[in-house]
Amino acid sequence: MKLQQFYNQAYAWILRTGPSFLLGLAVLIIGFWLIKILSRWMTNHLYRRNVDPSLTPFLLSLTITALRVLLIISVMQIIGIQMTVFAALIGAIGVAAGLALSGTLQNFTSGILILLLKPFKVGDNILAQGQEGTVKAIKIFYTIVNTFDNRMVVIPNSKLSNEVIINISGSGSRRLDVELKFSNAIEFMDVRKTIDDVLGRAQNALKIPERRIGISSIEPDGYKVMISVWLNADGFVDTKMDIQEQIMQGLRSSGLKLPGMP
C-alpha cells in the first residue's frame, strides 16, 4: 500500500514538474549554444576593432561568465527552484566584497577605461603623478612607467583616470623654446642668420612646422632672442641638448658672443 502511494506521489510529481524541467533543459541547451556563438562573434569583433590584447580575453571571459550565470539562474526559476535564499546570499557577498575591494575595483574600472579610450598607449612618453617617462605596460589594475633615469614606477590606474595626464609624445612632435640675450652692439640680423643656418643644417630639427627666430624683449643693456624649433617627441631631451650645443657652437664660430662668453 505504501509502495503504491509512493508511485502515485512520484507520478504526480513528474506530471507537475516534468514539463518545467524539460523546458528548463531545452532553455539551458539552447542558451549555451547561443552563448558559444556570441563568444565567437565577440572575439572576431574585438580583434577587428583593435582592442588592446590584454583587455580582449578579460572582456570575453567576463561577458561569457555573466551570461552563463544569468542563464543558470533563469533555468532554475523555470524549473521552480526558489532563489530567495540564493539572492540574499549573493547580495550579502557582493556588498562585503564591494566594501573590502573598493580601491581595487576603482583601479580595475579605470584600467578598462584607459584600455578602451586610449588617452595614452605603450611607448608614449607621459607626465603623471609628478613622474615623467615611457609607458612600458598597461595592466588592468596599474600602469608601469619607466622614467628617463631608468626607475620603474607603478601607478594605480585610478590615479591616471581621475587626474591630469600630459601625453608628451601624443602629437608626435614638441616645440623647443630657447631664449638668449645679446648686447645692443650685436646686430640682430647677424644673430638670426647664424642661428637659422645652424638649425637648417641640424638633421634632428623638423622643417615643418616652420621654426621661428625673433626678438622677445628689449632691455636697456641688450635684447633677448627667442628661438622656437620643432623636434620629434621621441628622444626630445637628447635632441634638445644637441640642438642647444649646435647653437652655442655656431654663435661662437661666428664671433657672436653672449654676455659673459669669453
What are the SSEs and their pairings?
Blueprint (H helix, E strand, L loop, with lengths): L1 H47 L7 H24 L4 H17 L1 H16 L7 E4 L2 E8 L3 E6 L4 E5 H6 L3 E2 L5 E10 L5 H14 L10 E8 L2 E11 L3 H18 L9
Antiparallel strand pairs: 1-2, 1-5, 2-3, 3-4, 6-8, 7-8
Helix pairs in contact: 1-2, 6-7
Could you characterize what this model shows?
This protein is α+β, with helices and mostly antiparallel strands. The chain folds into three domains: 99 residues, Orthogonal Bundle (Helix Hairpins), CATH 1.10.287.1260; 49 residues, Roll (SH3 type barrels); 81 residues, Alpha-Beta Plaits, CATH 3.30.70.100. It contains seven helices and eight strands. The strands form two sheets. It has a five-stranded antiparallel β-sheet. It has a three-stranded antiparallel β-sheet with strand order 6-8-7. Helix 1 packs antiparallel against helix 2 and helix 6 crosses helix 7. The longest helix is centred in the N-terminal third of the chain and has 47 residues. It is rod-shaped and about 120 Å long. The chain starts with a helix and ends in a 9-residue tail after the last helix.
